[in-house]
Amino acid sequence: MTASSPTLPGRVTVLSGGVGGARFLQGLLHWLEQAAAAAGAAVPPVTVVANTADDLWVHGLKVCPDLDTVMYTLGDGIDPERGWGRTAETWHVKEELAAYGVEPTWFGLGDRDVATHLVRTQMLEAGYPLSAVTEALCRRWRPGVRLLPMTDDRVETHVAVPDDDEPSGQRVVHFQEYWIRLQAAVPALAVVPVGLESATPGPGVVEALTETDLVVLPPSNPVVSLGTILGVPGVREALHATSAPVVGLSPIIGGRHVRGMAQQLLESRGVPVSASGVGLHYGARSAGGVLDAWLVDDVDAAEVAAVEAAGIRCRAVPLMMTDADATARMAAAAVALATDG
Ligand code: GDP
Ligand code: CA
Questions:
Q1: Domain map (residue ranges) of the chain
Q2: Ligand 2 centroid distance, CA of 67 (Å)
Q3: Is 204 left (phi over 0), alpha (psi -120 to 50) or beta?
Q4: Among residues 45, 38, 12, 46, which one has the least CA distance to residue 334?
Q5: How far apart are CA 251 and CA 19, in angstroms?
Q6: What CATH superfamily is the domain 55-143?
Q7: From atom 1 of ligand 1, which residue's Cα is the shortest distance away?
Q8: 3-state secondary structure of 232
Q9: If you measure from the C-alpha of residue 125 to the centroid of ligand 1, how many angstroms do you get, rounded to a whole number?
Q10: Which residues make up the environment of ion ligand 2, defined by Cβ < 5 Å?
């Protein structure tokens, strides 16, 4: 380690969506392992609070895309090219279902992946909460983090899209249908997290935010991933109450999302599609928001001043997660900005 390496944090808690959050977590763990080895210290424990509002029931199975993406990525079971689903996947179940003509045909249910959903669905139907099911699944995958669903309650993000055949001129689809079947190519007129207002934080979630030494918001989708986690009643309050610093990394670089559909959804919320726009949308903790510190990409360095003017410490560094080393450097920069200033 160099003299400029940030101090090794104690306990770390990360809020996460799917692919963006999981890739960041890989880099964070990589850096924590290196820094701990260099310091002759134990690797700090990491807790992940994952979004569950993308979850859906499909062909009678409960599918949790973001939990599974984190679990498979950190457990070395992910398909690295796709960024989701299992490695060495085959698609016979999907083909057979399509041959029966049963909908939905657009959802990618891989043969290996089906086993995870079968175990989950059986356990849920036996009465176990999602948090206990997730813990059981993680016993196989050993992701190296404690993985907590944001809530055990059913929350589903729905998206209103234009439809001339409907008297109202619009129709509501599940977020997965908006993203996978419609490929986010039609306007999102509204994004509605159904059930969010009456959800309660899952077991351990509030404690993971208050009894920790650092909270990180990775470059996950600010609306449908982190926006829903922050919308679980009690989560924002926990972030206000915690004595740990809260640092985030921008998913928007040069006015565009790196992948996914953050642009469309931010527009539907009236949030400017820029690194500073997202940082200011989260807001300063000192002013009722959730951030103490915010990292933007080098190309957005001109936006640092606007973020700092709002009371959020801000710095520009490379934020492209091109490989584990580049992502580890991002994690180190986030820790440095949060803890060392
Ligand atoms: P999802 O649930 O699979 O959509 O994943 P997340 O919500 O965790 O992350 C999606 C977000 O990650 C998108 O808004 C992307 O812009 C962002 N993202 C993906 N790759 C990168 C990257 O290399 N750098 C940065 N800064 N953001 C990224
Ligand atoms: Ca997701």
A1: 1-53+150-155+195-341, 55-143, 156-194
A2: 9
A3: left
A4: 12
A5: 12
A6: CofD-like domain (1.10.8.240)
A7: 18
A8: coil
A9: 32
A10: 17-18, 54, 66
Ligand nearest to the CA of 220: 1
The full DSSP string for 271-293 is --SSHHHHHHHH-BGGGTSSBSE
pTM over 0.85: yes
**CATH number, span 1-53+150-155+195-341:** 3.40.50.10680
Nearest ligand 1 atom to alpha carbon 262: 14
Handedness of CA 93, 179, 216, 211 (dihedral sign): negative
198 CA from centroid of ligand 1 (Å): 27
pLDDT tens, position by position, for the chain (341 residues)? 444 578 899 999 999 999 999 999 999 999 999 999 999 999 999 999 999 999 999 999 999 999 999 999 999 999 999 999 999 999 999 999 999 999 999 998 999 999 999 999 999 999 999 999 999 999 999 999 999 999 999 999 999 999 999 999 999 999 999 999 999 999 999 999 999 999 999 999 999 999 999 999 999 999 999 999 999 999 999 999 999 999 999 999 999 999 888 998 998 889 999 999 999 999 999 999 999 999 999 999 999 999 999 999 999 999 999 999 999 999 999 999 999 77
Q: Select from 19, 26, 320 the residue to mutate for testing ligand 1; criterion: most ligand atoms less than 8 Å from CB.
A: 19
Closest atom of ligand 1 to CA, residue 51: 2
Pocket of ligand 1 (CB under 6 A): 16-21, 66, 69, 219-221, 225, 249-251, 253, 257-260, 262, 319-321
Neighbouring C-beta atoms of residue 89, cutoff 10 Å? 16
Nearest residue by C-alpha to atom 27 in ligand 1: 251
